[in-house]
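Field: sequence (string)
Field: structure_tokens (string)

Example rows 1 and 2, in order.
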Amino acid sequence: MEISENTKNPYSGGEWVYLESDKSVMVKISISNPNGMLEYYLKDNPHRQFIHYSKVKPITDYNLISELEKNYSGETGLLG
């Protein structure tokens, strides 16, 4: 699915995505802002991170999502 800059942000908080630049970085969106910026957290960095929605792709493998959820801490927003 190609996402153009003119398309509304298709993501919402709670969705799992991977970074287009590095497929090994999988994150759960904390907040999806109206300006197209997604907020998320990394395991190694407790500070919130931001990325534009056009720079991520959705994770659609339900087995992978299930595994990610098992290792996810909802309180801190971190994997691990």
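Row 2 begins here:
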Amino acid sequence: MALDQILVIIGGLGLSIWVAWYFWFSEKKAVKVQSVEGGIQEAVIKVKGGYTPDVLIFETGKPIKLNFIREETAACTEEVVFSDFNKRATLTPYKTIPVELKIDKPGEYGFQCGMGMVKGKLIVQ
């Protein structure tokens, strides 16, 4: 095998490893949500190929308001599902859709698109 072929193979493997790490194993940065007037913990989540931010930290027992802004028309993100709370919402493209929760028990609670491909997490402390 020629040297240039070996270098291409090594480069391709290296790039594949980096892509796998970036998308599946890199640590997500959590956003700590502060209370606004009235004690409501309010966050804006942009929906475009994923949730931004996708990990949010809240205080136990205070009302939570998540404002989803869907900036795409892909079928996958037309619904957000909170299976731990038996709650779901249809996300209209290019509109803000509020979802209100009150979580009285500390823990980690997932949310996802209707197809289960796009995921996020609420951490309640």
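free_text_note (row 2): The CA atoms of residues 6 and 12 lie 10 Å apart.
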